[in-house]
Write a structure and sequence with these properties.
By secondary structure, the chain is an alpha/beta fold. The longest helix is centred in the middle third of the chain and has 20 residues. The strands form 3 sheets. Strands 7-8-12-11-10-9-13-14 form an 8-stranded mixed β-sheet.
Length: 573
């Protein structure tokens, strides 16, 4: 793109007559002179900052740094807000609104006079939602994440957001930690701007955005309060202007090879299981063929290289000091498609060529990993005909092959009411089963799959057991947890027909999950089954229930798969 009249924004600002007058005059009310949109690339800064999303509040400062870079490169930056999704306050689940945010991002990018866009993300769903929306428009696109918070410190040790919250809560329930000490840990664990400092979903998705080629090299790990994040944001502002002139669109970056890289890197960093539904949805928007089976086949033999919670010992701050994601990608070597194009205009191999590992306690060598061959395994069987997943790196190896009797909870309210009851018929060999927490059944597929260990087992020292559900779990969580069972219970998947006392066989090495109930008995149960009454008749949730796909398809809306491009042919006046 070398001629100024080829800029998409000129279809707004370069028009003659009343239409051009209208567009230009109203921007001038903001104090911008004519020269700002007379042939300059207009860069949209898509900001998910919100005080209701604590992880993203500081993005307003990141936006200022991006603007400096855009101006510096001769562009015209215009910041705009979108829906913001936080894990900490939203009910019933932030996942319920991921697709809505993606629609907001998509439509605002397409509807406005933008030549390129910088996506500002942080908390779990803001990263995939923005990528999904941007991929459906296909303009030059670059992402800047807000970065992780600083390490937490409590009682002489580092504590990780989410992961240690669960650990400390279990200690309270077991009677080993006082409620007062638990509350005291809150401010010491969460002590700065930024998203979770563990390798939870937020860190996972920003690292995978960098792996896909959408972030500047090394940017995912920089702490939120580190001045280098703002310096890099300014460089990103300069770079997006260059990308517009190069016509380097997001579709040239989000290729099948790039998604294969992301799947493999997710295994190497011990990333969140939530990456599965997000990458599937993102690939669907980018018109890239990706399936659930790819997550199993592409990660077999991949070692866990990153020693971060919940699978390891350290946090994102140490990961940054050790060299961050470029070190991991370089260490994976030929396993990565090094020829994939990135936002720098260079290949991913070129981006990481000079990466150095400064702390092998945090980032391990390929031949000396944290763990060998612990992928996200995809299971099949009569309990999950369309698949289920388990994160081996966070699970107990002794439970990878297990047979136990089901202890069934029909919904989340049933779980909360009975999990700590002294009358609950459960022992350490039981398998906890939670229904109606999938995309439609909740609705919104919440992070409740890592069901709490029953109190009476905690008091005996039990810290893990097999758990099965159609829900998700937080990337900061851990345990032998089988998730994303498809089809889900609420639409009549076999999970709906599991009863207390049914025997279930888990065989992760053989990738099997089997309910030891005959087909004829399951058909009898199906005949007597009634779908749950959700009581939702209107609004966005009604739309969601009608159109959401199952977990093995990324839980996107059926009518959003694919893209519509950037063309808008009709005027507004």
């Amino acid at each position: 793109m070398t001629q100024k009249n080829k800029l998409r924004s000129q279809d707004w600002f370069g028009r003659k007559g009343r239409a051009g007058y209208h567009h230009r005059a109203w921007v001038k009310t903001e104090g911008f002179p004519q020269e700002c949109f007379a042939g300059r690339p207009v860069i949209g800064i898509c900001n998910s900052a919100s005080e209701l999303t604590p992880c993203n509040t500081h993005l307003k400062f990141v936006a200022q740094a991006v603007k400096r870079g855009v101006w510096q490169a001769g562009g015209f930056p215009l910041e705009f807000p979108t829906i913001s999704l936080g894990e900490t306050l939203l009910r019933p689940s932030s996942m319920l609104f991921r697709n809505l945010m993606s629609m907001d991002v998509e439509e605002m990018i397409r509807a406005n006079p933008l030549d390129g866009v910088v996506l500002l993300c942080g908390c779990d769903k803001t990263t995939p939602a923005q990528i999904m929306g941007a991929a459906s428009v296909d303009l030059p696109t670059l992402m800047i994440s807000g970065g992780p918070m600083l390490d937490g410190h409590y009682q002489g040790r580092i504590v990780g957001s989410g992961t240690d919250e669960r650990r400390l809560d279990a200690e309270v329930r077991a009677g080993r930690l006082s409620p007062e000490a638990f509350i005291e840990s809150e401010a010491e664990a969460m002590r700065s701007h930024g998203h979770c400092n563990t390798m939870g979903t937020a860190s996972t998705m920003t690292n995978l955005a960098e792996t896909l080629g959408l972030q500047m090299p090394g940017s995912a790990a920089i702490p939120a309060v580190d001045s280098r994040r703002y310096a890099l944001a300014q460089l990103a502002g300069k770079r997006i202007v260059e990308m517009v002139w190069e016509d380097l669109r997001i579709s040239k970056i989000l290729t099948r090879k790039a998604f294969e890289n992301a799947i493999r890197v997710n295994a190497a960093i011990g990333g969140s299981t939530n990456a599965v539904v997000h990458l599937l949805a993102m690939a669907g928007r980018a018109n890239v063929s990706l399936s659930l089976d790819d997550f199993d086949s592409l990660t077999r033999g991949i070692p866990l290289l990153v020693n971060l919670m919940p699978a390891g010992e350290y946090l994102m701050e140490e990961f940054f000091y050790a060299g961050g994601l470029p070190v991991v990608i370089k260490e994976l070597g030929k396993i990565i498609h090094g020829d994939c194009l990135t936002v720098t205009g260079k290949t991913i191999a070129e981006n990481v060529a000079n990466a150095k590992n400064y702390d092998e306690r945090v980032i391990k060598r390929y031949d000396q990993p944290v763990k060998k061959d612990v992928p996200i395994a995809v299971l099949y069987g009569n309990l999950c005909p369309d698949g289920a997943i388990i994160k081996e790196a966070a699970a107990s190896m002794e439970l990878m092959q297990h047979k136990g009797k089901a202890v069934v909870f029909e919904n989340i309210e049933d779980l909360h009411a009975r999990i700590d009851s002294d009358d609950l018929a459960v022992d350490e060999n039981s398998i906890l089963v939670l229904k109606n927490c999938g995309p439609r059944g909740y609705p919104g597929m919440p992070e409740v799959g890592d069901m709490p260990i029953p109190k009476k087992l905690l008091q005996k020292g039990v810290r893990d057991m097999v758990r099965i559900s159609d829900a998700r779990m937080s990337g900061t969580a851990y345990g032998t947890v089988i998730l994303h069972v498809a089809p889900e219970a609420a639409i009549g998947g076999p999970l709906a027909f599991v009863e207390n006392g049914d025997e279930i066989v888990v065989d992760v090495p053989q990738r099997q999950l089997t309910l030891l109930v005959s087909d004829s008995e399951l058909e009898k149960r199906r005949a007597n089954w009634q779908p749950p009454e959700l009581g939702i008749q209107r609004g966005y949730q009604s739309l969601y229930i009608k159109h959401v796909l199952q977990a093995n398809k990324g839980a996107d809306f059926d009518f959003l798969v694919g893209s519509s491009g950037s063309s808008v042919t009709r005027e507004s006046h």
